[in-house]
Design goal:
It is a single chain. The chain is an alpha/beta fold. The protein has a twelve-stranded mixed sheet, with helices on both faces. The two termini are 25 Å apart.
Length: 334
């Protein structure tokens, strides 16, 4: 293996989040405009290029790979990429291959994902009400997602449900979602919405529901024990003693995880973001495509990691790095 990736603050970078597509079969109101324009195919990394890029990072010490989108499972041929990554799991170079999904394609792909060595998935699900689900996703069908989650569970995948807390939308479902996850055996993480103005017709400042309030409501019903567990990311965990379930809370704007940040994010066009809250990025597509040899790519990766900042400084105007800032923060949660 090459020298491991260490940033200027002595943090080993061993977690890579990779967006494999900007496309999605939903149009969630806090994430995408209804009429999205998507990237030309030539700008996207091919599946072969994604394999080479991820393999290079793994050779430089990345131990955890999280696949995201858009919706990663709508990328044509994506299972070829997952199948390719299994060689790194088998060799021991990669400890974990996982993904974040909206769940719509899990019935189709759950068994294949397990066969590729995926052991757990994060599913983004903000409501258990079919009408509200259709409203917030615009194009989504709750029954299809719940069926996909059930298929994933049957296939043996461990499931974490990610819920964006939205004032006036799912406040009244706090306990029903918590109870459902307890009954199903799913982990649960709540994510504070980032109050970044609107994406056409939805004002996120009106939807801002601070997790401090959500946690206070949970304490009215449950005995809540703070856990010391840390993942290097933004999630903070508690245990509900009455059910034994573990809950995570992600407040994207806080700095409480920067000191231990071990992750970077690659977009589907090959741009590497060293910090979720900074504009700074490095173009890795150019060195990747410039030569079949990986020397220039490795040099570019090391130069990028050398620019990783100590902490983030959010600018609310940064709405569309590649579509989903709220969900991007949620992905970092484990």
């Amino acid at each position: 293996m090459n020298m491991p990736l260490i940033d200027p603050f002595a943090r080993p970078i061993d977690y890579l989040r990779v967006s494999v597509t900007d496309r999605c079969d939903f149009r969630c109101v806090y994430c995408m405009a209804e009429n999205m324009s998507f990237l030309p195919k030539a700008e996207l990394l091919t599946l072969e290029e994604l394999d080479r890029m991820c393999s290079t990072f793994i050779g430089m010490g990345v131990k955890k790979l999280r696949i995201t989108g858009g919706e990663p499972l709508v990328r044509k041929g994506i299972m070829t990429f997952f199948e390719g990554m299994t060689r790194h799991l088998h060799s021991g170079a990669l400890n974990e291959l996982t993904l974040t999904t909206n769940g719509s394609q899990l019935r189709k792909f759950a068994e294949d994902l397990v066969a590729c060595g995926v052991k757990r998935v994060n599913v983004s699900l903000d409501t258990l009400d079919a009408d509200k689900f259709a409203q917030i996703t615009r194009w989504g069908r709750l029954a299809q997602v719940l069926d996909g989650i059930e298929a994933a569970k049957q296939a043996g995948l461990h499931i974490k449900i990610n819920v964006v807390a939205l004032k006036g939308f799912n406040e009244d479902e706090l306990f029903s979602i918590t109870d459902w996850c307890a009954a199903q055996g799913h982990d649960l993480t709540f994510i504070e919405v980032m109050p970044m103005g609107d994406l056409g017709n939805e004002d996120r400042i009106d939807q801002y529901w601070p997790l401090s309030d959500l946690r206070a409501r949970l304490r009215e019903r449950f005995t809540v024990t703070e856990l010391d567990e840390r993942s290097g990311g933004p999630a903070r965990y508690v245990r509900l003693e009455e059910t034994g379930q573990k809950l995570g809370f992600i407040t994207p704007l806080t700095h409480n995880f920067c000191e231990s940040c071990n992750r970077v994010r690659l977009t589907c066009t090959g741009e590497l973001y060293m910090c979720l809250g900074q504009e700074d990025m490095a173009d890795l597509r150019a060195p990747l495509r410039a030569s079949p040899d990986n020397t220039a790519l490795e040099t570019a990766i090391r130069a990028a990691i050398a620019r990783k900042p100590k902490g983030h400084d959010f600018d609310y105007s940064r709405q569309k790095v590649d579509g989903q800032m709220t969900r991007h923060m949620s992905h970092t949660g484990g």
